[in-house]
Amino acid sequence: MKKRQMYFRMITASLMRRRSRMLVALLSIAIGATVLSGLVTIYYDVPRQMGAQFRNYGANMIFTASEDTFTLSDVQQGTALIEADKLVGVAPYRYENVRVHESPVVVAGTDMNGAQATSPYWHIEGEWPSADGQIIVGANIAESFRLKTGEMLEVSYTPSEIASGDEAIQDTVLEFEITGILDTGGSEEDYLYMSLTDLEELTGEAGAIDVAELSISANSDELSGYAEEISSTVSAVNARLVKRVTASETTVLTKLQALVLLVTVVVLALTMICVATTMTAVVTERRKEIGLRKAIGASDTSIVKEFLGESMMLGGLGGILGSVLGFVFAQQVSIHVFSSSISFMPALVPITILVSVLVTGLSSLMPIRSATEVDPALVLKGE
Amino acid sequence: MSLLELKNVYKIYGELHALDNVNMKVEKGEWVSIMGPSGSGKSTMMNIIGCMDKPSKGEVLLDGVDIAKESAKNLTTVRRDKIGLIFQQFHLVNYLTAVENVMLAQYYHSIPDEKEAMEALERVGLADRAKHLPSQLSGGEQQRVCVARALINYPEIILADEPTGNLDEANEEIVVDLFHKLHDEGTTLIVVTHDPEVAEVAQRTIVLRNGRVVKEVQNQNFTGKIHFNEEGTHVTKTDLKSEEEIQAEEQAHE
């Protein structure tokens, strides 16, 4: 039998046959590794989670015309430059002046699905339009004209030619079904919203896009990169970040990550103290065994190697347990705090095990050093 | 040249002379008992001969080398290579099996060899208990594992501290018989004991009192076996006295 085989046989026997004692040590290491692994998972998942949360506060990028006007095809060209999985939604808006009950009102033509994605905070009393011929009405307009969900509303459009005095052309009047009342607490309540197709039918022309709102799941650096790329690639479009959203997101993220990092460091320190205390107890309990080993010829190096081997093996086992339990812990935190699940990070398993082994090894150094100071003559004294 | 020689050895703790100018020799292959009451300096002498302690003064020559002058690291090497230790409390590693406990001594000495360790257990009659943990063995069996561990590396001296102190008479006889076999094979034995019955089975008995050698008895009737009378109790053939008898004598003297 090789010395190495006997070495592993000894440290395995020590862990397996002293299970009840070692379980306490293993538990403290596993708890530390669990919290560490969980917090690191959360640390790396926080940007994604917070990004998703911030997407609820509306678009974080807008397209405006760089010169005169831009079209839907320019918007599509711009959004094509954004990675599909990062683009949460895009809502192009075309504004036109119309009349309701002979009063001037502004109507916004948009992509209803896109508006839903970029403005998840919009509260609709009723339903979002699901087909052409349906509209939603801002709460202020609904109040002014006493409009209700389910009612039909006549909307008339005066072409620019009439407005400029050409009487040969008449107003276009179309009837729409009100599917919902929009309540945001903001300026959105002063508009009517219909699909771009309906607006095109009402106005009789495709028309230009005034503004496009985009919701992108990316950090501020990535967003700036996209904005720059889009502005330079699509000449008609000027892409800008919505600073109040992106800046707040960056600030909150930085603070949250710093907090998680701080807690991680504190947990790391507590784990080290816990392991050091447990190993001190283990060494004290095994003073006679250490004395015996020294009496039959073990050098200080051998004693250090054996105890370090035991603690590192414990660290490895604790790390394996910790990486599994850490994911469960992070998943629970994510579900309860962010209401969404996280994805398993396989790379974190070897890292957790390695960190656990290193932390356990480091924490054990002091207690193990005291093991080499055991005087065999003293501890083996007959009774 | 003697295998072991102590020349004017002192061990002083403050005012206390645990060993006070001790001189003794042990020849190769000899079986020597060191006897004396508690506090006579037996354990101190055992620790010094066993390279676990150093004298305050004097020379301790093992194979002609003064181990009193060696560093702690070198003493570990000497202990590992030349001395086999047997303890009163057995001191087996409780989570290793009997055979693994024997292999532990091989591990620190050279290369662990399970076959050889099994042979050592066979010599002490414990081959069938090789895979048992110390907690599954009787006191006598644990001491026999301890003997197997002490002899596995073929040490020059086997140093036993009260080897029968925790054993009943039947196991005491088994262990003494094992010593007898080892002695027949040429092993040098130094047995520290306070039991005159165990001491007298050796070839020579050195009696310590208050850190001094007060008597050396050459056992003329050396058989290496414990003698029993018809009632099954020990019979002392020399004029060695038990600890109780010595204490009684000292009290009477005072």
Key features?
A: 383 residues; alpha+beta; ten-stranded mixed beta sheet; 13 helices; 18% strand; B: 254 residues; alpha/beta; six-stranded mixed beta sheet; four-stranded antiparallel beta sheet; 8 helices; 10 strands
- Biggest sheet layout of chain B: 6 strands, mixed
Largest beta sheet of chain A, briefly?
Answer: 10 strands, mixed
Quaternary status: heterodimer
Mean pLDDT of chain B: 87
Rg over CA atoms of chain A: 34 Å
Class inferred from helices and paired strands of chain B? alpha/beta
Strand arrangement in the largest pleated sheet of chain B: 6-7-8-3-9-10
Low-pLDDT parts of chain B are none
> Cα distance, first to last residue of chain B?
42 Å
Order of helices and strands of chain B: EEEHEEHEHHHEHEHEEH
Give the helix proportion of chain B (percent range): 25-40%
The largest interface is: A-B, 31 and 37 residues
Indicate the overall shape of chain A. Answer: rod-shaped
Q: Spell the H/E element sequence of chain A.
A: HHEHEEHEEHEHEEHEHEHHHHH
Total number of helices of chain A: 13
Coarse shape of chain B: globular
What is the terminal-to-terminal distance of chain A?
36 Å
